[in-house]
Design goal:
With 326 residues, the protein is mainly alpha-helical. Helices cover 61% and strands 3% of the residues. A 3-stranded mixed sheet has the order 2-1-3, with no helix packed on it. A hairpin with a 6-residue loop joins strand 1 and strand 2.
Amino acid sequence: MPICTSCAQPTPYLYTVYNSAYNFRLEQCTACHAFADPYVEHDTLTLLLDLILLKRDVYRHLLYNRGLGARRVGDKTPAKKDSSARPSGQVRHSALSRWWLIARLGSALICVDAFIRWTHISSSHAGDISEMATWNRAAIAGFVRILVGCFFETAAFHAGVVLACYAVLKLLPSPGSPVSGIREQFRYSHIPLTLFYSSLTKLFLLFCLSIWRPDATKSDWATHARPHLHPNATTFTHPVVVRALELLDEDKLDREWVVRNVLGGMAAGFGLRVVLDCHPILTTMIIIAGWLVKTAVANLVSGWVGTGLGVDDKAAEEMWLAYSIP
């Protein structure tokens, strides 16, 4: 049964279809009297943008309401229907469809992550960048190694998070009556799907950083020549303020590490907070457990991934670990 994206209460229908699929009316939630799911009438681009912006309601729509909640005019099905009374074949089909979506979405995002890491390692070594960026046989072999490494890291992170979620849910006291719609409709397959949805934010920013990288010549020019400021411009001369602002310089701040680990961890924690409906401290502990498992696997595959990338194997291994370990 779908849920209300505002209050998470189960609702029998999300919208009513009249003459065609484009002629429908949104239903109101009986508990909070808001529209049960406004995202029904939104397009894919809006859903993607709200996922990047970490909107809670879009997570609930994609995880629990996608493809459900339609009622046609003249439908004689009772309004109150228990979700446990659904046929086993329909439940099995829904679970298979969710796993198939996880496989398709995960494959695409792993490929994007591998491309981002390949560009990071390729542009971080000393030498002719244009030669390394050429799609020759050695570059393709290196990309395949990074792709396989990303697959094992992602699988390890998801396995660690799922096991930690299982332990947390078993340790938590059983919820009282009535049970929220999120706890009632929760399945463990929602966890990897939530992690993939949450990774869209960091992958989008990392993809932008992999395309538009800081210009080294520009930063060198900035260190030797001070630009002309406006006469009324405010400048900071206090040593503490100057040193604090210097931490944001391009040569001292690793923006990719901040986006991947800090922002990525916050996004994953937010997604788990939505799907598990538990305290943020517990979701933080779950993410840390997943990071520990991911770090162990990254150390195991770093030596194999660093071989054959066209750069020094030891340097490539260190760059892989620096980019993988929080």
